[in-house]
Specification:
Blueprint: E1 8-15, E2 18-28, E3 31-35, E4 44-46, E5 49-51, E6 57-59, E7 73-78, E8 81-86, H1 107-116, H2 121-124, E9 134-139, E10 144-145, E11 151-155, E12 162-166, E13 188-192, E14 204-207, E15 211-219, E16 230-235, E17 256-260, E18 266-268, E19 274-278, E20 284-290, E21 298-305, E22 312-320, E23 339-341, E24 347-349, E25 363-368, E26 371-376, H3 395-404, H4 409-413, E27 422-430, E28 433-439, E29 446-450, E30 457-459, E31 469-474, E32 478-479, E33 484-488, E34 493-501, E35 511-520, E36 540-541, E37 548-554, E38 560-562, E39 564-565, E40 568-569, E41 572-575, E42 581-587, E43 594-602, E44 605-617
Parallel strand pairs: 3-4, 14-22, 27-30, 33-44
Antiparallel strand pairs: 1-2, 5-6, 7-8, 9-11, 10-19, 11-12, 13-15, 15-20, 16-19, 16-21, 17-18, 17-20, 21-22, 23-24, 25-26, 26-30, 27-28, 28-29, 31-34, 32-33, 34-42, 35-36, 35-41, 35-43, 37-38, 37-42, 39-40, 43-44
Domain InvasinE Adhesion: 35-178, 325-461
Domain Bacterial Immunoglobulin-like: 209-322, 490-618
Pfam family, one: BIg21
């Protein structure tokens, strides 16, 4: 009976001439699609078990009638038999015939079974039902936000395909066979990154425009990889680099995302966010972490095994922000460039934040982009903030920088604050008054302030000082005996300021600031008793006899009063000529025979100065050290 379905058939033999005489015998031709059990519908010879290519032995599927309980099961009629179908490994519905926890075969084990009986031969040659697929014990839950870990691979033994199925739903039915040995269970999990840890901040670091690769690995107690192990990934709210700083606004600034190599990007925005998934066939899952709007916080990521929540692994990560420097004095973790260059060749150092200058003298702070930026004032009187005046960026340097990054783009391109203006290290001469310049990098406008740069503005230093200049003050009326320039009252004292570079070459167009001290007598004045042989102490004069007139000669200018009253000197400024010299004369027409110290200083290099004493003698006093 080549086309038998597994039925019993009686064969009857009867005498042709005596029908009352007969004999009968039953015949059964069995089929491979039915097992040889009493509850089978058909007579069969299905083997009790099959051996896969990897040597694993599997008992045949169960008939529905073989179940001691039909709770949480269903049936499927195929090849004249009614087979039992089951919910998968994640189902909570109990049935004595279900595989015990851990005894569902791995998806690779089912692949091995298919490879032994490919192309539907497990049905045609071995009789197993293949209308449904077979549950594996390999979790296939996609990496996602808070998803239940209920998805498992089901393998179609007719064609070898696999798919991910929700094994817990009431409509999820598949065939089931059980393994004789349990699957290995993960007891350890590690969360690492192929990217090296930054020792300075003890975290894996990347710019907020970049990403950080992550690797989750699940192993057994011996460190052997365990595939398809389920886990959860969590994060904290994040902390600033300055742990005392908590004024940062985190809106959209902590919106992390995590993306598996295959699958959709997942939001990982909050401290309450939980991502779940399973490792792959090699016991690992590669992920990509990003935080495009990161504000420079350090976050702690923690992975834990789903079946063993106490098995955890943590990894600190930092996404740095352009608007903060990489400094332990910064509030946030940043990557502002330490130096940057403008198109005119000027190389700048980044601005300093609070705590970085060696001295707080003449400094204040300005808060922007979560940082307290150093501002300076009166930088023409000392080295304040991050550099001396001749190392501060000049106005032309700022203009080149602005042209490179117009309309405030220095903030987005370099990270500089733009809500406050910036002092330039060079001055501007208007008439004989010195003006200190400052720049708005948001609008590109230049501003200036006369006499003293008293306002607090931001400071940007160059990597090197501008070429050093030297100043000298001399007079053709020099008297070596008196170490002073000397003229009679009513005459003039010519003086010359010479500015050179370090090579001794004259420097034209350099701003020079002239100041003077009090005018002093030669000795004691108006004393009722003068002790013989004693040289008296000089006395300062601030009244009209001390007043001077200063007349610029070359470059020529208008004569101006040059006085000092109450310790405040007249300040006169001018430029050197083409020969690097500034020539002027002094007169003191009401002098009583006084000596005055005159100082010439580089306007943009306050500590480079030279002084000469000027003496206007009177006929009413003899030339002796004992004279008043």
């Amino acid at each position: 009976r080549p086309d038998t379905h597994g039925t019993r058939t009686a064969i009857n033999a009867t005498l042709y001439e005596n029908a009352a005489v007969s004999a009968s015998i039953d015949t059964i031709f069995t089929v491979v699609t039915s097992p040889d059990v009493s509850v089978a519908r058909m007579w069969g010879h299905m083997a009790p078990s099959l051996t896969a290519a990897d040597g694993a032995v599997y008992q045949r599927p169960l008939l529905y009638a073989e179940l001691s309980s039909t709770d949480n099961t269903a049936s499927k009629q195929e090849t004249n038999e009614t087979w039992a179908v089951f919910h998968g490994p994640a189902s909570e519905g109990a049935n004595p015939a279900r595989c015990a926890a851990g005894y569902y075969p791995a998806v690779e084990a089912l692949d091995s079974l298919y490879s032994k009986y490919p192309s539907r031969t497990i049905n045609t040659a071995q009789g197993w039902p293949v209308y449904y697929s077979y549950w594996s014990g390999s979790n296939s839950t996609s990496f996602s936000s808070g998803a239940k870990l209920d998805f498992y691979y089901a393998v179609d033994l007719a064609d070898g395909s696999r798919r991910s199925e929700n094994s817990a739903t009431s409509t999820a039915w598949q065939y089931q066979i059980c393994a004789t040995t349990p699957l290995p269970q993960a007891t350890q999990i590690t969360l690492t990154s192929p990217q090296a840890m930054d020792d300075a901040i003890q975290a894996v670091k990347a710019k907020n425009s970049e990403s950080i690769p992550l690797l989750i690995t699940t192993t057994d107690a011996m460190g052997n990889p365990v595939p398809y192990a389920t886990f959860s990934l969590k994060r904290d709210a994040g902390k600033a680099r300055n742990t005392d700083y908590n004024k940062f606004v985190a809106t959209n600034g902590t919106n992390m995302t995590v993306t598996p190599l295959t699958g959709a990007q997942q939001q990982f925005y909050y401290a309450t966010s939980v991502l779940t998934g399973a490792t792959g066939a090699d016991g690992t899952l590669a992920l990509t972490l990003a935080e495009p709007g990161g504000i420079g916080l350090k976050n702690q990521l923690t992975a834990n095994l789903n079946d063993t929540p106490t098995a955890t692994s943590s990894l600190p990560v930092v996404f740095t922000v352009l608007t903060s420097p990489d400094s332990d004095k910064a509030n946030m973790y940043g990557h502002m460039p330490e130096t940057f260059t403008a198109s005119n060749g000027a190389e700048f150092k980044r601005p300093l934040v609070a705590g970085e200058p060696s001295s707080e003298a003449h400094t204040d702070t300005y808060f922007e982009t979560n940082e307290n930026w150093i501002m300076v004032n009166s930088f023409n009187t000392g080295n304040y903030g991050g550099c001396p005046m001749n190392q501060m960026a000049a106005i032309d340097d700022f203009t080149a920088l602005y042209n490179d990054h117009p309309s405030g783009k220095v903030a987005t391109d370099i990270g500089l604050p733009v809500g406050k203006r910036w002092w330039a290290g060079d001055s501007l001469l208007k008439g004989s008054t010195l003006y200190w310049q400052y720049k708005d990098l948001k609008t590109g406008k230049n501003y200036s302030m006369s006499e003293n740069p008293g306002n607090y503005y931001l400071q940007l230093c160059l990597t090197t000082s501008r070429s050093g200049l030297n100043i000298a003050l001399s007079s053709d009326a020099w008297n070596a005996d008196k170490s002073a320039a000397v003229a009679k009252k009513g005459e003039t004292i010519p003086m010359t300021v010479t500015v050179t570079n370090d090579a001794g070459q004259p420097q034209a167009g350099v701003a020079v600031l002239l100041t003077r001290d009090y005018a002093y007598s030669r000795g004691a004045v108006d004393k009722q008793y003068i002790e013989p042989g004693v040289i008296g102490e000089p006395v300062p004069f601030t009244t009209s006899p001390a007043n001077m007139m200063l007349t610029p000669v070359a470059p020529a200018g208008t004569a101006v009063a040059f006085n000092n009253q109450n310790g405040l000197s007249t300040k006169w400024s001018g430029f050197t000529g083409d020969d690097g010299k500034l020539r002027f004369t002094l007169t003191q027409d009401k002098s009583l025979g006084l000596k005055t110290s005159v100082t010439a200083a580089l306007a943009n290099q306050f500590d480079e100065a030279a002084s000469v004493d000027a003496i206007f003698t009177v006929q009413t006093s003899p030339d002796t050290p004992y004279a008043s």
